Predict the 3D structure of the following.
Amino acid sequence: MTQDILLSIIVPVYNIEDCLERCVESIRQQSYRNLEILLVDDGSTDGSGAICDEFAARDERIRVFHKENGGSSSARNLGVREAKGAWLGFVDSDDWIDPDMYKRLLETALASGADIAQASRDEIDEQGGRRPDVCAPPKETFFCPAQDFLRELLLHRGDCSFCTKLVKKELFAGRAFPEGKLNEDFYLLVDMLACTEGISILPDQMYHVFYRIGSNTRKKDRNDFSRVFVDIVDNADFVEELVGKKYPQLMTEAVRFGLFQRLDYMLHIPVVRMVNTDAFYCRVKKYLRTHVKDTIRNPYLTKKNKIYLLLFTAAPKTVRRVHGWIQKLKRN
């Protein structure tokens, strides 16, 4: 394959000076050389911005953008607007990738005619140990039709991260990562799936996630309530509406997804926020109460899921307190 196709790799950067060099070097060392690296400094207050500038001085393929802090989606969206490549990739600034990742992804996408190609990933903790796989890699490369891929996402078996993917830039026309939200990849990918035939998936775990306690969704403080648990419920509503319009045959899976996301919300919301003046909490309770039959009959919910959902429907505060006590005992 001639390297005449330009790839744009977008890296949002925010106060990550301890990991930034490993990340950028892994992109610079890609065997596919015809790429540009867009480092978007999202208002860093440590030395990250200066490190980005140093990299740009050493490699003409690197372009740096300094902006006021607006979050990862805002930084990614700026990168998409500035990208010159026909295909876009995304790498989080604390992660790193294998040298052949983008070469393999582009080859696979071109061979299959897919608009999106995906590598598999693993997660490495702060001690260098490998964590259990979030998404089980396939045994061999295959093309997954859009409807099948969406079904895997609804059953929490698919990978919605844009970091593992190479995407045709044209799919971003009229679309952007939702700003001010977490779990933003899911929303945008589901929206894109409706306009593409599917995704080519490689089994090789070429993207390496650095799992660090203290990120947006991994707080230590039991009283902290990340807005991600609100956003995942909003995403469930979005995908249920989309499925109703475009993939009605997946409605059972979509309702299962909605129930599961609300269970996750209920398992994390602090008891002090479980009040009738919290409109979002009341909406979650109402959904559970109007979907009792779906909870009992849904074939994709485990017995444990169903028990918890029914208990939360009947006595949410009590169940949340008991669950909190159980988790505290486990930690001790």
Remarks:
- The chain is about 45% helix and 15% strand.
